[in-house]
Amino acid sequence: MLLARLWPASPTLLVAAAAAVKVNPLPAPRNITWASSSGPKQLAGFVSLRVSEDTPDFILANGWNRAWDTIVSLQWVPAATEGPFPSFQPFPTAAAGVKRSSQALPTLQFVDVNISDVDADLQHGVDESYTLEVSESATSVVIEAPTVWGALHAFTTLQQLIISDGQGGLIIEKPVKIQDAPLYPYRGIMLDTGRNFISVNKIYEQLDGMSLSKLNVLHWHMEDTQSWPVQIDAYPEMIHDAYSSREVYSHADMRNIVAYARARGVRVIPEIDMPSHSASGWKQVDPQMVTCVDSWWSNDDYALHTAVEPPPGQMDIIYNGTYDVVREVYNELSSIFPDNWFHVGADEIQPNCFNFSSYVTQWFAEDPTRTYNDLAQYWVDHAVPIFQNYSSSRQLVMWEDIVLSTEHAHNVPTDIVMQTWNNGLDYINQLTAKGYDVIVSSSDFMYLDCGMGGFVTNDPRYDVMSNPDPNTPNFNYGGNGGSWCAPYKTWQRIYDYDFTQNLTDAQAQHIVGAVAPLWSEQVDDVTVSSQFWPRAAALAELVWSGNRDEHGQKRTTLMTQRILNFREYLVANGVQAKALVPKYCVQRPHTCDLYRNQSVIQ
Ligand SMILES: *[C@@H]1O[C@H](CO)[C@@H](O)[C@H](O)[C@H]1NC(C)=O
Ligand SMILES: *[C@@H]1O[C@H](CO)[C@@H](O)[C@H](O)[C@H]1NC(C)=O
Ligand SMILES: *[C@@H]1O[C@H](CO)[C@@H](O)[C@H](O)[C@H]1NC(C)=O
Ligand SMILES: *[C@@H]1O[C@H](CO)[C@@H](O)[C@H](O)[C@H]1NC(C)=O
Ligand SMILES: *[C@@H]1O[C@H](CO)[C@@H](O)[C@H](O)[C@H]1NC(C)=O
Ligand SMILES: *[C@@H]1O[C@H](CO)[C@@H](O)[C@H](O)[C@H]1NC(C)=O
Ligand SMILES: *[C@@H]1O[C@H](CO)[C@@H](O)[C@H](O)[C@H]1NC(C)=O
C-alpha cells in the first residue's frame, strides 16, 4: 500500500538531514537518549534481520520486511522537525552541499533481534516493551524485547529513525539508545461498520496507521440497527439486512482482518451491541426477538421516542427465544475472533421501545413494582452467563450505561470492563470507585465523529436566515448544528486530556487504556481515514508515553512537530490522513503557535 513517489524534498530539510537530525518518532519513546555524535551512520544497501527464533507465522521476518520495504521505497525526509526556538530566520534559497557522514565508520548491515519469549500470545497485557540501540561503531541495530509484539514496536520506531541522505542513500543518527514500553495495555480506535459499510481494504488502511502509531486494539462495532454486514453460518438470513450482497464480511474476511492485524501487533475486539441497538439481522432470524423495529423513532415528540437515532430496535429481554439466537451468534463469532476480550454493547436502553413488546408489558403488569432497572438486570442475569460460558479466559466489555445510566442494572459483575463515554472525568471517577476496570472513550475528548452537523433529514432548524436573538445561540448560529457532541475534537483536545486527574492511585490502576470511537453515520470508505487520522495518533502517544515531559510539564507544543511529520508519514504510507495546518507551519516550527510563550499549556 505504499505510494511509490514522494514530493521532492525541500532543500532546507535535506540540509537538516545531513546536519544530523535527531528524528523523533511518534509516539515519543518513553526514554530516548542521544549521545554526542560524529555524524549519522550510513546504511548498507540491504539491512538483514538476524533472529534466533521466529513465530510459526513469521511475525518478525514479515514485520522487518514490511519496515525495510517502507524505508527503501519512501526514502523518508522528515517533513517537520523540531527546530530551535524562535526560528524565524529567512528561508535558505539554495541547497547547500550535503556532506556525507564520516567515511571510516562501518555501515549498518543488520538488525539483531533477541526475544526472550517467542511464544507469548497477542492478548491483553502481553509485554510490549523493547530496547533499541545503535552504537557509534556497531554494524547492527540491537533490539531486545520480551516478545515479538515488542519487537514489532521497535521496527516501527526504527523505520521512522532511518531517513534519506538526499543522495540516494539512507542514514540513521547515532548513537541512540531507546527504552520503551506503553503506559497502558489497551490502546485503540473504534470502527463502526453498522451505520455505513467500510471495505476490508479500508480496514487494512486503518490497521496500517495503527501499527505505525503503536495502537494495539481495533474495537470493531460490527453492526447496528441500520445494517447487519456479518456472515453468520448458523443464520445465513442475517445478511439479508446488509446494504448489499457485496457489503458483507465473510468468515474469510474477518479471519483475514484478524491475521492482518495480528501481523502488526493489533488485537481485534468485536462488538455485537446488545440488547439495545438491535434490529437488523436479528429480525431476519426471529422477528419476536426484537421490538419496536417498525416504530417511529419520534424525536419530534420526544415523550414517545423509541430510539436516539433512526431506525429503532432493541432485543426483547423477556422473550425466551432471544437468548437462543444470541448464544448461537455470539459463539460463532467467538470462534472467529481469537481475542479473549469480547464487547457485548449494553448502551442506551430506551424504555419506550419496550411498550411495543407484549412480553415486556406483560412482565411489568405481573408485578407493578418492576422497573426498567429490573429489566436491565434481567438482561445481565440471563445474557452474561451465556457470554462468560464461551471460555474460562473470556473477558467481557460493556458500555458504562449498564452501570450509570437511568436504566442501569442493579448488579453488574465488577469483572466486566466498562467503556466510559459520558461526562468525562466524573464518570471515570465513579466507575473506578466502584471497582470496574475502565476503557476511556470520553465523548467530550475522544469521539472523532463530533462537530460534523446532524445527519437526520427534514430538519427545519437548518432553515434559518439570520439569528433572531443574538443573546441566545441559535441552532445554526453558535449552536451545535445538530452534533450532540460538538465541537469537533482536534488533536490538541485529545492529547491534552488528563483522564486520570483527581483519581486515587487505586482508581488510576483501574484504567486499562483508551479508545477513540468513530461512529459512522456520516463516514464511509471515502472519509474514514481522514476522520481517524492523524487525530488517532494524538491518542496513540497519550496512551503510549503520555502528554508530559520528565518534569511533569505538558509537552503539547513539542508534540506539534511530531504529529505534523507523522501526518505526512501516514499519507506517504497510504493512510489518507487529513491536513492539520498550512504546510508553512509544517516546515517552520512554532511560527503558527498561538502563544510565543512555550509554557502556557501546563
Ligand atoms: C533513560 O535512559 C538512560 C540511558 O539508558 C538512563 O541513564 C536514564 O536514567 C533513563 N531515564 C529515565 C527517565 O528512565
Ligand atoms: C538475549 O537476551 C537474554 C535476556 O533476555 C540474554 O541473556 C542473552 O544474552 C541475549 N542474547 C543475545 C544474543 O544478546
Ligand atoms: C410505556 O410503558 C410504560 C410502562 O407501562 C408506561 O409507564 C409509559 O407511559 C409508556 N410510555 C408511553 C410513551 O406510552
Ligand atoms: C421462558 O422459559 C421459562 C422456562 O424455561 C418459563 O418459565 C417462562 O415462562 C418462559 N417465559 C416466556 C416469556 O416465554
Ligand atoms: C455452558 O456450556 C455448557 C457446555 O457447553 C452447557 O451445557 C451450558 O448449558 C452452558 N450454559 C449457558 C448458561 O449457556
Ligand atoms: C480536581 O481537583 C481540583 C483540586 O481539588 C479541583 O480544583 C478540580 O475542579 C477537580 N477537577 C475535576 C474535574 O473534578
Ligand atoms: C509563560 O507562561 C507561564 C504560564 O502561564 C508563566 O508562568 C510564565 O511567567 C510565562 N513566561 C513569560 C516569559 O511570560
From TrEMBL:
The keyword Glycoprotein applies. Residues 184-546 form the Glycoside hydrolase family 20 catalytic domain. Belongs to the glycosyl hydrolase 20 family. Residues 1-20 form the signal peptide. It comes from Aspergillus kawachii (White koji mold). GO terms for cellular component: membrane. GO terms for biological process: carbohydrate metabolic process; glycosaminoglycan metabolic process. The keyword Signal applies. Keywords: Glycoprotein, Glycosidase, Hydrolase, Signal. Pfam families: Glyco_hydro_20, Glycohydro_20b2. Its EC number is 3.2.1.52. GO terms for molecular function: beta-N-acetylglucosaminidase activity. The active site is at E348 (proton donor). Gene3D superfamilies: Chitobiase/beta-hexosaminidase domain 2-like, Glycosidases. It catalyses: Hydrolysis of terminal non-reducing N-acetyl-D-hexosamine residues in N-acetyl-beta-D-hexosaminides. This is Beta-hexosaminidase. Residues 25-161 form the Beta-hexosaminidase eukaryotic type N-terminal domain. InterPro entries: Beta_hexosaminidase_sua/sub (IPR025705), GH (IPR017853), Glyco_hydro_20_cat (IPR015883), Hex-like_dom2 (IPR029018), HEX_eukaryotic_N (IPR029019). The lineage of its organism: Eukaryota, Fungi, Dikarya, Ascomycota, Pezizomycotina.
